């Protein structure tokens, strides 16, 4: 449970910290991924929700041995399995979306934030396999 939580935290932190910049001529912030606000919002959204879900499922895992009802255990395991499958798919979509938008971004505008953008892409890829 710790690897997906760390990966989600890295993606979220990279996009919040260096995902938005402004040009020297304008004070409005724009996303480093080809000025597409949806790319940054998507990465931040799935990162935050994945982090919170990891905390929730970690607490469920800690409490799981004390649950005596087999029906409740079955539903918790199925919820964990279903959520993990959904989040694997969402991380795959996020990786493809961020990679596509990064390939269209102008490098002369985002040369300082390029490492954070690449880290967000890399850890969204790692998150596919960790979920």
UniProtKB/TrEMBL annotation:
<dbReference type="GO" id="GO:0030672">
    <property type="term" value="C:synaptic vesicle membrane"/>
</dbReference>
<dbReference type="InterPro" id="IPR008253">
    <property type="entry name" value="Marvel"/>
</dbReference>
<dbReference type="InterPro" id="IPR016579">
    <property type="entry name" value="Synaptogyrin"/>
</dbReference>
<dbReference type="Pfam" id="PF01284">
    <property type="entry name" value="MARVEL"/>
</dbReference>
<comment type="similarity">
    <text>Belongs to the synaptogyrin family.</text>
</comment>
<protein>
    <submittedName>
        <fullName>SNG2 protein</fullName>
    </submittedName>
</protein>
<feature type="transmembrane region" description="Helical">
    <location>
        <begin position="76"/>
        <end position="98"/>
    </location>
</feature>
<dbReference type="GO" id="GO:0031594">
    <property type="term" value="C:neuromuscular junction"/>
</dbReference>
<keyword id="KW-0812">Transmembrane</keyword>
<feature type="transmembrane region" description="Helical">
    <location>
        <begin position="43"/>
        <end position="64"/>
    </location>
</feature>
<feature type="domain" description="MARVEL">
    <location>
        <begin position="1"/>
        <end position="131"/>
    </location>
</feature>
<keyword id="KW-0472">Membrane</keyword>
<keyword id="KW-1133">Transmembrane helix</keyword>
């Amino acid at each position: 449970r710790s690897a997906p939580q760390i990966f989600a935290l890295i993606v979220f932190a990279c996009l919040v910290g260096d995902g938005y910049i402004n040009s020297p001529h304008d004070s409005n912030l724009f996303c480093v991924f080809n000025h597409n606000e949806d790319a940054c919002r998507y990465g931040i959204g799935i990162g935050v929700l994945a982090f919170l879900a990891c905390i929730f499922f970690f607490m469920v895992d800690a409490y799981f041995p004390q649950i005596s009802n087999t029906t409740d255990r079955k539903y918790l395991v199925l919820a964990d399995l279903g959520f993990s499958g959904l989040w694997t798919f969402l991380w795959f979509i996020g990786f493809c979306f961020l990679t596509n938008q990064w390939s269209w971004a102008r490098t002369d505008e985002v040369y300082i934030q390029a490492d954070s953008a690449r880290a967000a892409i890399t850890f969204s890829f790692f998150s596919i396999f960790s979920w």
